[in-house]
Amino acid sequence: MNREKVVFSFFMILALTLNFGFFAGEVDNPNHHNVYELFAVIIVNLIATVLKFGDRSQMGAMLLATSLVALVQLFSASIVWAYVVNIQGNVMTADTMSTIISLSGGAMIANFISVILLIIETSMMRH
Amino acid sequence: MSLVTSLIMRQMRIPIIILITGYAISILGMVITPGIDNQGNPWHMSFFDAFYFVSYTATTIGFGEIPYTLTNAQRTWALITIYLTVVAWFYSLGKIVSLVQDPMFREALKESQFSQQLARIPDKFIIICGFGETGHALAKALTERNIHTVVIEENERLIQTLPLEDFPLVIPGFKGDARDPEKLIQAGLQNEKCAAIIAVTASDETNLKIAVTSKLLHPDICVICRSELEDYESNMFSFGTDFVINPFETFANIFAMAMHSPALHLLYDWLTGVPDTDLTNPIYIKEGHWVICGFGRFGNALYRQLLKSNIQVTIIDPSEEKRDTFLSRAENKHNDFIIGTGFDAHTLTMAGITQAIGLVSGTDNDTNNLSIIMTAREINPELFIVARHNKKANEKLFEATQANIIMQPSEIIARKIRTLLVAPLMIAFLNKARNQDPSWANITISRIMGALGESVPSIWTLHVNEKEARALCQVLRLGRVIRVGNLLQNPRKREKQLETVPLMLKRNQKLLLMPTSDIAIKSGDQILFCGTPSALRSMQWSQNDLHSLNYIMTYEDTPDAYIWRKFHQFLKRNERRNRPRQKRHLMK
What we know:
The structure holds two protein chains of two kinds.
Chain A: H1 3-23, H2 35-51, H3 58-87, H4 94-126
Helix pairs in contact in A: 1-2, 1-4, 2-3, 3-4
Chain B: H1 3-32, E1 35-36, E2 42-43, H2 47-58, H3 72-101, H4 103-120, E3 125-129, H5 133-144, E4 148-153, H6 156-161, E5 173-175, H7 181-186, E6 194-199, H8 204-217, E7 222-226, H9 230-238, E8 243-245, H10 247-260, H11 262-272, E9 290-293, H12 297-308, E10 313-317, H13 320-328, E11 336-339, H14 345-350, E12 358-361, H15 366-379, E13 384-388, H16 395-401, E14 405-407, H17 409-422, H18 424-434, H19 438-452, E15 458-463, H20 470-477, H21 484-487, E16 500-507, E17 510-513, E18 526-531, H22 533-544, H23 546-554, H24 562-578, H25 584-587
């Protein structure tokens, strides 16, 4: 058992599940989407990305790329949130919420691909 | 991703994760902890506020309690935030510092630097193995001729001095044992730009290993080796090493040349010396009795040359074994072998130093050599002295002895390899020159001196091909005749001659010594010149610049650009039209 792989898989899958948790619900209803969950997704995704730093294998590079994509999406989502609520000082509207959710939906796809790559890598190791 | 970046990234994983976790815990705590706004209403920090607060606290900037004064609960959490994040930062910074100081990281950094420098070399390069005195002299000479070199050397200190010295080109230095094929490959042995490898380390064994490795891994390149022992020499030749240079044999050959024809030796000395140094004086060696102290590789090589000239020789060496083998050979029957060291007056007198005309102090110990010279000089001040100089550090001492010839192995090898690489035709020239009658060398010397003056000339070869002489080839293709003499004209002022002498012309494997000015140049010719560096630059103009060549050939300064050319033609047409008919031929 490779400890590095276990830790990485843990963070990768956690990122996907949290992302799904945040994403699930009506797109434009702010009550269905928790800000703490978004925070957790970002932190877990950051850690998963850093864990792939310096991996020189082809698969490692792919995983780094997908994690970076997810991060870009999530950062955009949080920036939108901070801009509307904290900078403009407005209340969260259905409009803004749907933007944030669709961005996090993109991040979820990236995270999903990461997990699939992870599964492929693991199944290839069996052979 | 290069090895260096991936090393950094891998090492930075844990510190970054610790930072992220520290920030995450602090931010989350700040958001959860209840606070009160300035109206006394319960209030929670947003993630934005919390991120802002933690960012300036963690970096010890400390803007204070923003936007509202913190409650005691929030202050408690702020305390935790401070210790958590500040410690995380210190840990990460410490990790970066220790990474930079890590010897493995530094090695990786140096290797990546080296391969970058190697990749940046635009054309062919030569690998020099061993950056001792010979390697240093070669690197200097080659870079001055615009030939790129790469150095591989085991001694880290010598590699570190590389960037400090003022070489005309950047010389990538690689620290490593040249016996290790892996290191040689890293140094660029299998690189397609690698043209030659020179093995000039101090050990014959290493040189042999380098030669074998190079011939196996990159058979096309030229391999040049230094070798001091005969066994290794024949071994190197056995698998096709291109040139094996034995400093003692080489010196003995030069010495024989000096003995037979001082003029030829002088010519050799000038044409193979370091350009821009002072010209040396001829050496005259009288016939008579010689004493050789030290019958090692050096003494032996010189002895064989003296034997060929039927000169009486007495040898002094402490080894009984060598004496027995010496005396057992029939060809040595006229010569004497005395057991002794040579630095005491008694042995030297027994060897007949009082009547001798020459002395070779050829042991491998510099102190002994110096002592022999001093003692011998005291007994017989008229002696012609050949001194073997082993260590560079003793240079001043040997100069002070004023020995007639000082033989320094590294200098001999550097000179030979330099000639081989910079002007391969020079070897052929010197071989051919040996077969000329003695007066030929004298005439050549006076010609070179007349044209060039007081310093050692630069040597270059003109290849008449598209790449190196574009303009010349273009004009030759048009069917015009260019003579050797044309090339000697100055492209700035054609009445003046360049300070250069053509030494040899090579055409279809045929060699012609000292080509005269009226010989017409053909495409594919190679001409060996000696001259001043400025003459070389001027000649490159007339080789490659159509304008300059035209000026030399036609006595006309033709303009290059389209408009000027048309204008020029127009002027000429008018001139011709207005010129009285009978005078036309006189105008030229």
